[in-house]
Amino acid sequence: MTDVAELSWKQATDLTGKVAVVTGCGSGIGRATARQFAAAGVTVYLGDVNEETGRATLQDIESAGGRGEFIPLNLLEAASIDSFADEVKARSNGAFDIIASIAGIDRIEPFLQNSPENWDKIIHVNYLGPVRMIHRLLPAMIERGAGGKIITIGSDAGRVGSTGETFYSGSKGAVIAFTKALAREMARYRINCNCVAPGPTDTPLFTVAMEQKLRESLVKAIPFRRMAQPYEIAHAIMFLASGAADFMTGQVFSVSGGLTMHG
Ligand SMILES: NC(=O)c1ccc[n+]([C@@H]2O[C@H](COP(=O)([O-])OP(=O)(O)OC[C@H]3O[C@@H](n4cnc5c(N)ncnc54)[C@H](O)[C@@H]3O)[C@@H](O)[C@H]2O)c1
Description:
Elements lengths: L8 H5 L5 E5 L4 H12 L3 E6 L2 H13 L4 E5 L5 H15 L5 E4 L14 H29 L3 E6 L3 H4 L5 H21 L4 E8 L5 H6 L2 H9 L9 H12 L10 E4 L8
Parallel strand pairs: 1-2, 1-4, 2-3, 4-5, 5-6, 6-7
């Protein structure tokens, strides 16, 4: 027997009054997630290396009546990650419920043309940077004792591979495995850790990084024959951040129009 009270769908999905940390807020999926969270009554602490676009997202949120703060974050620099996390803890008094680690980069080229400098950059922005940030934020979440939700962004490239994205696939595979292992350690604190794996999504990362011909053939392979819109990935993140996902942890949630149907 457990003492978990039954919640209605409305209660479980209500995010009003929650506090979220969102990285990659300056563009694409991070921007959509920040805006959608804020519109649902969540106070957002926003991070991005691009201060101009990051602050523009905040302005957008505030002019729609939402609440948030922007703090510069460069996932390539340990000192920047530490000061971002420390600022979030100080400004929120350690009271944040959700970490949505969304910022990421890609580089599409055949493996034999890769340069080790790019490996270094991708592994830091996509994997080691988020790991350092979560490591720095988690003690406050645990100490508060109110549980929490950590959502990382992987990619199906990290589960099934993707031509021209060998190293990116490796970085996303690392994110997925990290999220699963963290989920096991954090369950005792009622902190759920899940990973969203977006399919091709209409953001600069996809539309700028990939040649038009390649993009078109990829979209043709999607059963729904279209890319995702960033808000559709945001909604999956919000579901995992809500009470409706209280019993889900260590899962990879693909939002890909059926491009990947992974068991
Ligand atoms: N768009 C897709 O098709 C797709 C598919 C699968 C996974 N993803 C993943 O979704 C996430 C978001 O991607 P997107 O498509 O919205 O990309 P995007 O390029 O639109 O946005 C990425 C954001 O991350 C920020 N960023 C980049 N380097 C940073 C750094 N060093 N420190 C802090 N912030 C930094 C950028 O400034 C930008 O605002 C990424 O993790 C990406 O790998 C995207």
